[in-house]
## 1
Amino acid sequence: MKSNKTQQTDADVAAYLDGIESEARREDCVALTELMAKASGQSARMWGASIVGFGVHKYQYESGRSGEICAVGFASRKNEIALYGLDIADGTNALLPRLGKYKTGKGCLYLKQLSDIDLNVLSSMIRAAAKTRISKDA
């Protein structure tokens, strides 16, 4: 059976963050790491080369395919910060109108910068998603 391309690694989260070229983006990602760790109750771990993840989400499809991915996480991309796993919890969509300036697509939430959003709303979304997605046996 085919395994996930994105696996949890032992890579250093701080080294990844330090490697973000834009100072403003780097500062946002450091702050986001702290916010996600606090809201999820999980330590930051690298998933693949570019995703900072928190907790483990184990899944199995009806087809029998199963795997693991970070419960919630983010990655600094070329034009924005992509946040993963936030759309799964009940009530999360009701918080979106209060979040601020963002885009969605492909199961992700995209932000240009943290100053564009309400961090209290984001923290609530992270808490709810982590509670829903974190596998108890991980």
Note: Residues 23-40 form the longest helix (18 residues).
## 2
Amino acid sequence: MLNAYGPGSFNDFLWIYGNSNPEIWPNIEVRTRASSAMFTENNPSGIRSALTRFDISPVELIEWGATDNADCLFWIPAGRADTWPTLIIEAGQLDFMVVEEPSPEVVLSFLEGRLECPFFPAEFIDRAPDFESWTDESGADD
């Protein structure tokens, strides 16, 4: 997915991170470190319980995207990388869902209306799919 699109947003709502300059906001490594620190400070017991079947803990999750509402999307690094499921956590860790599909399929399923997330707004899929590449403040592409 990153090779095809790079960092940017789908429908001005779902942001996809990249492996580029660590000084920019949509960087997988930077966002994952921040999430790991959050999981260390908080004890998300429901999330921890949901991850037991994958034999990983929340600090092992890799954040690959987020929404404008501050919901976070994570790879669950279990098995082959191209098959990693996705964990979507609502802002404030109020709710979450596990999607047993790799990230490209998750995004496509959302955009085609085949996947619903109870805490994503309907407006996200009520329009034709659109992608906008992320650019830094200078206007140069990432």
Note: Helices lie at 2-5, 28-41, 45-51, 103-111.
## 3
Amino acid sequence: MTVTDGTPKPAERLAEIEATHKRLRAQATLLGEAGVRAPSTLPGWSRAHVLTHLGDLARAFARQALCALDGRVVDVYDGGRPARDAAIERGAPRSVELQLASLEDGLTQLEQAWALLGPGDWDRPCGYRGATLEATQLCWWREVHLHFTDLDLGYRAEEWSDALARHVVGYLLPRLPADRTTVLYSDGDRWEHGAGAPTTVHGTRQGLAAWISGRPAAREPKAYGAHDSLPELGSWP
């Protein structure tokens, strides 16, 4: 049912992603003009910034899939990260109607592109970090759940699946400092990173995932050991 590290296979993730798309669509359509202008929980970003980014990234990953099926490898964003950032700033001021239309267009394109993929197609090379299409699905799995949380529409980290929480923690371990040993522990799950005086950080899976990704958690993890404070987190990998 799952691969060796407990991460669901692509078909299983698709079912969870599609369910999240359905809920995101339903809650986003309740936003009025004032709602879309309101701040998200991401510093410096309104809800409009988050919605713009989700629509743009969905289209970018749809293109990755279609090009990979044609045997072509293209950049995720033409012009790289600067073009991506500029597109978000251009898109954020749009009306709520245009924001919702862009989100729907992106989600639909992504769903349709991924529907064309067979089980073996997820191993096709693509332009995302020199990896395979499965890496784009893993990225979107993270992004759609984290940014849905950022929209502050009632969806919370506590609702993330155990599989997603485990994946987020494992993916973001490089954010932990290298000069101290940090052991993350939750209900039998254990991760370790760094070297030096050890600190154990204990919490729920979802609490650990929220903390290491910089999102709010109802129950923040607690640190014990050589350092009784949570480690300072570095940049994303």
Note: The radius of gyration is 18 Å.
